C-alpha cells in the first residue's frame, strides 16, 4: 500500500468522525418469549445502557430497570399461557442477575418485586376505568 492511499483512507475516517457519523451501539439480546412453533412473541434487548421491551412485533418501552422489563415479559408469558398458548421464555444470566440485584436494592426478592409491580399495574388500570 502506498503512503498516499493510506493518507486518503485515514482522511476519509477523519471526515466521517467530524461529520458526526458514529458507529451505532450494538444491540444485545437478553430474553425472548416464543410460542410452541418458535414464533417470537416478545423479547428484551439492551442498547446503550437501556433495556428495551418488545411485544407483538412492537417496541413497548425503554427503561433502565432490568427488573421491570423482565417482570413485564414474564407477565406477558403468563397471559399467553392463560389464553391457552404454550410459550417458552428464555433469559440471559446477565438480565436475570441485573433484575435480582435491582430488586435486592429495594429489599425485595425478584418474585416480591414482580408481585408488587403487578399490584401497581392493576391499581393503575382500575383508576383508568
Secondary structure blueprint with pairings:
Layout: H1 3-18, E1 28-35, E2 40-47, E3 50-55, E4 58-63, H2 66-82, E5 87-91, H3 93-105, H4 110-128
Structure description:
This protein is of the alpha+beta class. The chain has one domain (25-128). It is built from 4 helices and 5 strands. It has helices at residues 3-18, 66-82, 93-105, 110-128, and strands spanning 28-35, 40-47, 50-55, 58-63, 87-91. The chain has a 5-stranded antiparallel beta sheet. Helix 2 (66-82) packs across helix 3. The radius of gyration is 21 Å and the shape is globular. The protein starts with a helix and ends with a helix. The model has no long low-confidence stretch (mean pLDDT 88).
> Counting H and I runs of at least 4 residues, what is the number of helices?
4
Shape: globular
Parts with pLDDT < 50 across at least 5 consecutive residues: none
Q: State the secondary-structure class.
A: alpha+beta
Our measurement of the CA-to-CA distance between the termini, rounded to an integer number of angstroms, reads: 71 Å
Strand content: 25-35%
Instruction: Please describe the biggest sheet, giving its number of strands, its sense, and whether it closes into a barrel.
Output: 5 strands, antiparallel
- Classify the helix fraction into a percent range: 40-55%
H/E element order: HEEEEHEHH
Beta strands, count: 5
For the largest beta sheet, what order do the strands appear in spatially?
4-3-2-1-5
